[in-house]
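Homework-ish question, so no full write-ups if that breaks the rules, but can someone show me the predicted structure for this set?
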Amino acid sequence: MTKPGIDLTPLLRQEMMPTVWCPGCGHGIIARGIATALMSLGLDMDQVAFVGGIGCSGRAPFYFDANSMHTTHGRALAFATGLKMVNPKLTVIVPMGDGDSMAIGGNHLIHAARRNIDITAVVFNNSIYGMTGGQGAPTSPLDSRSTTSPMGSIEPAFDTVELALAAGATYVARTTTFDFQEMPQLIAGAIRHHGFSVVEVLSQCPTYYGRLNKLGEAPDMLLYERDRTKLLEAFGPPPEITREEMVGQLPIGLFRDEERPEYVDQYHGLIARAGGGKSAS
Amino acid sequence: MRLVQGNEAVALAAVHAGCNFYSGYPITPATEIMEMMARQMPKTGGVFIQMEDEIGSIAAAIGAAWGGAKAMTATSGPGFSLMQENLGYACMTQTPVVVVDSQRGGPSTGLPTLPAQGEVMQARYGTHGDHEVIVLTASSVVEAYRMTVEAFNLSERYRLPVILLLDAVLSHMRENVEFPDVPVRERVMPTIDENFLPFGPDAPFVPFGSGHHTVVTGMSHDETGLPKALAGQAVQRILRGVQDRLAHDAREITFYHEMELADADIVLLTYGITARAAREAVGLLRADGVKAGLLDLQTLWPFPEWLILEKTQAAKAVLVPELNLGQYVIPVRAAIAGRCPVESLGRCDGELFTPEAMVEAAKALAHSLEIGGVAHD
Ligand SMILES: Cc1ncc(C[n+]2csc(CCOP(=O)(O)OP(=O)(O)O)c2C)c(N)n1
Ligand code: SF4
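A: Not a homework solution, just the prediction itself:
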């Protein structure tokens, strides 16, 4: 992993700075985590594509000096699927919001996971809709406040990790913006993994989630992330965890890292069987 | 010569045009295009994928285009409605992609197996915001083949989504055809330097992985692709540029057939499947002494106002039969601007017009205007 102080600027698109993100927003920390992971992998940015949706998180592709696509709300994985299939050489990274990935884009998320296509989805989960001003998300915890749940949410929240595991993603991890030491390592593992990877990063939105739920400023929210999570056995095989044990101890770490036939490979096998000769690129 | 179905012709034409990516979701009456592509793509080294819905289908096609593919998707009304947001994305990002909509009765689930022409306006204006788009249609299996190849060629040339409107009858109809050898516009990879403007006027389409780190966004952006300050003005400049290019090339991109227009008092203006009955109707009317003619459009949008004015100059009336309650007649009427009456002949019951129905409507029109050839009693 790169040490703090390593210059990440060659990976960034200077003309798009400063970012749109509010001071204290966790999304910048995640972007740094992705950049650090890319730096450690030494990938050629000509062959890296970022495909984002719409939301504060969806802006991330603008900030990387790579092939960048900023698509429509929730649909990034579908765009990324077409891109990856015709150009398998590209490393495709999809930064997504929690609303983006699990409300409007939930269908694409589960099907990308089911296919096990070699794409890395990084879910920037701030438990709220940031870009549109603090409305409830499918990840907003029960009783949490948002502008559309002013008396507290009566809906249970999705657990990104459980969803990704159930849908068939072959690399599934969760971390937080507090746990920056682990984050780049988990993201690098996801990029290296040959299959569909989901890395959920619990992020802070001090502007809306923090204010509406009286969680204080960004540093207070980082400590809140620390206190509501518990590290799994240091990146070992996933232990058995019951739902009850999770309360107040949301597990973080690497939940799954396994090989299963990857979709683009499968398709190219099909081309070979059909006698299709050269593959599309 | 062989017996070919309309949908099959579209798939074969797509392969001929160099299509190497197909994404779709099953829907009547377009499904056979997808089934055919599922067989054809692997054989030719192309990619086929059945997506989870039509929103994903068009998204994957656009993504594939940026990956370097010639991409297509096909659907019918309900799916075409779902595609609208991302169609606008293709417009905004100047992405070549072909979308086939085989029209069935609507609205909603409508008449899944019966023909309609209800998406003539949706194809042009369905996605939000100002944009240009090219819309083609066809009235026979061989024309469906030709127009599919042209759809690819035009989308390459103008970096636009091109929509091909078919209908349930044409999709499922079988005709004996000899496929014409329609020339294909090949994509050439230009050499680019650091000053390359990916969204500059007439800029070639350069997919990802070329070394230029292009930013593709549905947000208003300038010629660099970046959503910088004054992006509103920039996007207006870019959209006007597309509009001007299409207007400049109007004669090349407007496909049509005409019949007996030279001395026609009554012009039947049709498009798509409706043209078949109209051709016969013109013959029947002429036999009865009514000077009828036919203008049959294959390019619906950009609206060929110049052509319609040219071809109806001497007409005393225009009749617009269409399988909807009067959509394309609206701009036709606006173009003709009162110079002569423009009558709508519409239906949305899932049936086609018979030549006789058109003859009757044309005669009634002639009669009401006291145009020669119709017996006055
Ligand atoms: C089809 C569509 N519906 C709604 C919106 C408005 N919208 C923009 S971003 C967003 C939600 C953003 O929340 P999230 O995905 O959690 O990302 P965040 O901004 O919190 O990073 C919504 C609803 C949109 N752009 N497109
Ligand atoms: S609104 Fe929230 S999520 Fe969006 S940039 Fe600001 S702090 Fe971040």
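Now go work out the reasoning yourself. Hint: Residues A 54-57, 73, 97-100, 124, 126, 129-132, 137 surround thiamine diphosphate (ligand 1) (CB under 6 Å).
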